[in-house]
Amino acid sequence: MLAFIVRRLLWMALVLFAISVLVFLIFFATPGVDPARQMAGRNPSAETIKSIKHEFGLDRSLPVRYGLMMKHMFITRDLISYGSHTRVIPEITSAAPVTLSLVFGAAIIWIVFSILFGVAAAVLRGTVFDPLLMILALIGISIPVFWLGEVVNLITQSRLHDSFLFSWVPPLGYTPLTQDPFMWFKQLIFPWLTLSVLYIGFYARVLRANLIETESEDYIRTARAKGLSERRVLFRHTLRTSMITFVSLFGLDFAVLVGGGALLTEVVFGLPGVGLLTFNSLTALDLPVIMTTVIYAAFFITLASALVDLVYAWLDPRVRLA
Amino acid sequence: MAVFEPEAEGIVFDAEETGGDIVGRSPWALAGRRLVRNKLALAALALFVLIVAVSFAAPLYSNYVADTDPFASNISGTVTLNGKTEPVLQQGGGKLGLGETPIGPTWHSKYFLGADNQGRDVAARVLYGGRASLEIGIGSALLASAIALVFALVAGFFGGWTDAIISRVMDLIWAFPLYLLAISLATVLLTAPNGLKIGFIHLSAGSLWVPLLIIGLVYVPYIYRPIRGQVLSLREKEFVEAGIAQGASNFRLIFNEVLPNVASTVIVLMPLMIATTILTESALSYLSIGVQPPQASWGTIIEDGQSLLYTRPWVAIAPGIMIVLTVLALNVLGDGLRDALDPRSKVRVKG
Amino acid sequence: MAEPLLEVRDLKVSFRTEDGIVRAVDGISFTLDEGEVLGIVGESGSGKSVTMMTVMRLITDPNVIYQGSIIYKGRDLMGLSRDAMREVRGEEIAMIFQDPMTSLNPVYTVGWQIEEQLNEHNDLKKGQARRRAMELLAQVGIPKPEQRIDDYPHQFSGGMRQRVMIALALSCNPDLLIADEPTTALDVTIQAQILELIKNLKREFGSAVVLITHDLGVVADVADRILVMYAGRIVEEGNKEQIFYDPQHPYTWGLLGSIARLDRPRARRLTAIAGQPPSLINRPQGCSFRTRCPQAFDRCRAEDPQLTAKVGDGHLDACHLSVEDKRERRDKTINPELAETA
Ligand SMILES: Nc1ncnc2c1ncn2[C@@H]1O[C@H](COP(=O)(O)OP(=O)(O)O)[C@@H](O)[C@H]1O
Ligand code: SF4
Ligand SMILES: [Mg+2]
After folding, report:
1. Residue B109 lies in a domain
2. Using an 8 Å Cβ cutoff, are B269 and B145 in contact?
3. What's the domain range around A214?
4. For labelling, which of A316, B22, B26, C87 has a CA lying 20 to 30 Å from the CA of C31?
């Protein structure tokens, strides 16, 4: 177990290092690209470019430049957005609760519904409901989330907003949970549903496939031979082992979303989270912000994937000694 | 006689369907037969082909039907409907009656789906945008598969250090969240004022090749993994080992034995890959880091339509419907292909 | 004993597949008395597992079609409700399977899995189930059961896992234990230990046993009576002495010839029967064994031989040859020394 953790941590360190090098190379060493000009935002002054050149050591060797980038990002944490002239890292920390609210809510919805649909489809195999549910799931994973968000907005904010159905829907935006929990909920419910559609479809399909595969395992036959009820076989044996894949997928997707992967949803619903921050800096081509969000998100996701592996080992005893 | 279980029948051992023999039919023929039997997958294939054909006929539509240039702004233009001449951009019409509102769907050959902010024909743009989206989607899926295939063949076949290094690098790229990698690449390439120069290849920032390359590159590890696994297992197969024993060169083995076998994996993955790359392209374009104006893709048109959402929803809705239909068709087709080629769906022969 | 424990009457099991209907079990009948050990022998694919899985009603393939009846203690199992069948499974009839590596759920400890079975069929107090599970583990010869009870299946060797499976099967004192190739996946030395264990426990628990195997050598020592199956049918049935000393069916001769015997020269140790079993979708006309039978003659092509008693009480076979012909030709097929030492 200890060896496993140590090995996992070493791999994580390597991944983090590799990601930071890759980001560095993309932003500072793409051929034909002048990083100082890019960092400086639109229409920069000559001084700004000069000071950036100095700060990031752009006239020095690559390793020194890499070191300076890491220093600005993690030690002094004084990276400045040349678009808004604010420090980047505090901006990210203040955006994080919004993203967390969005992703947590969506995750609960998608876990509940994907398990419901996946189990229902697997249990109802051979009836029309299985292909029907799976087509629904396919439609779910075929809809671009940002477009779905627009359609939802169109309906709830405009076309049917005056009907009794959606008159309660507040305008787009975000209210902190601590300020007004009910408002928080009302503003987030449609973003939650929209974001979860893709994942419900995907997880329901994965779970169904896993359940059906597990169903043909010898130990499921043993469970039946023991005289267990179908319900017990399903929940304590088939579902329990199928959840191993489900949970590890979930961990990674959750991490990616918290790391800013929900940016499309945040953009359509105007939620000022990490994703919207990234988006705004994309439209302004504000490189320091983009670079920082990328690195921070990548670090967060790597950390989460290490955690997922530990959970995996806990769920699947076979992994422990491996 | 007692009969139970859901599908059991009272009449047993009826003579129907007993003519088949399993031997002597190639896996491809079996797969083809299963695919044909899968009507849904065939319908999906037809739908996809139709969408491709219609999109690539975009110039015909704009020249002969809509009679408009979908890339030139037409702010002060007019359109004649049922004998009445109306401006393409009308004053007011917004929630507050302010600003200009483009004409809505006419359901006629001109401005069938209405106009966008700049008075351009949305229907014609959706077709052109489809062409760009499909080109990028298909192109990047092919690119990713080609690169992944080369690396997987090399890694899986030579094994040892070659394999270890390639696979570790792929794992590292895999660990880098896909959308972050795409965003990083896209911002850097788009901010390069003179475009990108690599050797003799020169890419301007507005070229469709930029999103195509970015998307193609980020998906390489996703295809690499399954293919490498298969190459490895093929290596273990007796016929390849026999080939090695006979002194056949690695090169010949790759081309004669391994390549044809991984072909089925790649083919099965292809529709699902294209579905994914089309979705990725639309997301990048929506975030303004994909296809750049004056070019259009489904994603950029949705972004254009966002500001008109409550007044002229069709601008954003129409390209979205196209994306959903295309991606859904590809997903259904991909599922059908996978089922058709999956050896596990064959008659189970167990001990 | 007046009434047999189990009586299978004209059982037919088939599967609808893409390529047609697979007749896996094509009309077999047999009985089993209380405490009796019945060996079912036949090559892989001859329908042994499907037969006994049907008795347990463990086949979940929705494309299955059944016909016939399975009378257990006077009740037709085919007619039982799902819940009534669950009471039978595990409590009255228990089954152990070929591959001990995959037959236990990898995510639960072996103790948990035995306790689950105990709790399903008995009202036990907390701790009682655990104590009983430990006893069972000790009974099947697992050293330090108080420690091993909390181990996961992957922490056991193949032989030990099969012992756990046996403990699981015996946990509710079943009247019938079905062992489907319990030793096939194991090393030869472990095989002998497991067979010995089954024999001893059978005596201790008094259950009847159905022992399925493709190797006549495995049942030689244990079985009271033997069924020989080929292509979904019984081709010969008799007690141990009858099958080993006076085998009637050419297929049985082949099986006897392929018993692994250490006293033979290596090259002759495993003389498997040449050829492939017939398609279960298109069964050939006449005797199903004729495509591989060295003794086949005209009548075998035209007429399906019926399972009838020709040589003695309870010794049945399905072959057109006359008893004299069989006895004469048999000795040329099987080595004469075999009959003496078996
Ligand atoms: N679910 C199924 N679908 C189709 N054919 C099956 C199925 N289960 C078993 N069979 C076929 O039935 C025959 C008998 O199988 P089985 O009873 O497992 O043989 P064995 O004697 O080796 O235990 C085999 O030819 C097998 O292919
Ligand atoms: S009936 Fe004929 S073919 Fe069948 S076993 Fe007897 S001799 Fe052989
Ligand atoms: Mg079997």
Report:
1. no
2. yes
3. 96-278+298-321
4. C87
Within a domain: B257? yes
Tokens of C58: 């463990």
Task: Tally Cβ neighbours within 10 Å of residue B66.
Answer: 22
**Nearest chain B residue (CA) to C44:** B351
Determine, yes or no, domain membership for A105: yes
Which residues contact residue A154 at a Cβ distance below 8 angstroms, ignoring those fewer than 6 apart? B309, B310, B313, B317
Main-chain phi, psi angles of B79, to 5 degrees: -140, 140
- Give the number of domains in chain B: 1
Closest CA to B151 of B138, B168, B132, B134: B168
SS3 state at A300: helix
Residues 6+ apart with CB under 8 A from A314: none
Backbone angles phi, psi at C238, to 5 degrees: -175, 175
Residue range(s) defining the domain that contains residue B191:
42-54+128-299+313-349
Q: Higher pLDDT residue, C54 or B78?
A: C54
Quick one: pLDDT at residue C150?
A: 93
Tokens matching residue C324: 């004299």
Distance of alpha carbon C340 from alpha carbon C337, whole angstroms: 5
Residues near ligand 2 with C-beta < 6 Å?
C 249-250, 287, 289-290, 293, 295-296, 300, 305, 319-321
**Encoded tokens for B188:** 């850097």
Provide the residue count of chain B: 351
Tens digit of each residue's pLDDT (9 = 90 or more) over C120-160: 998 888 889 999 999 999 999 999 999 999 999 999 998 99
Whether A226 sits inside 8 A of C90 (CB atoms) is yes
Q: List CB contacts (< 8 A) between A301 and chain B.
A: 175, 177
In the numeric block, the tokens 């601008």 are attached to B315
Compute φ and ψ for A125, nearest 5 degrees. Answer: -60, 135
pTM: 0.85
* Mean pLDDT score of chain C: 87
In one-letter notation, the amino acid at residue A176 is: P
- What ipTM does the predicted assembly reach? 0.87
Distance from the Cα of C88 to chain B's closest Cα (Å) equals 17
Tokens of A315: 């769920």
B 136-175 residues inside an 8 A Cβ radius of A:
172-173, 175
Q: Is residue B8 part of a domain?
A: no
- Indicate which atom in ligand 1 lies nearest the CA of residue B351: 22
Could you tell me the CA-to-CA distances from A172 to A265, A301, C194, C237 in Å, in that order?
12, 28, 70, 80
Position C144: which residue type? K
Which CATH number characterizes residue B219's domain?
1.10.3720.10
Pocket test of ligand 1: the residue of C16, C22, C98 to mutate, having most ligand atoms within 8 Å of its CB, is C22
- Helix axis angle for B39-56 and B27-37, nearest 10°, is 80
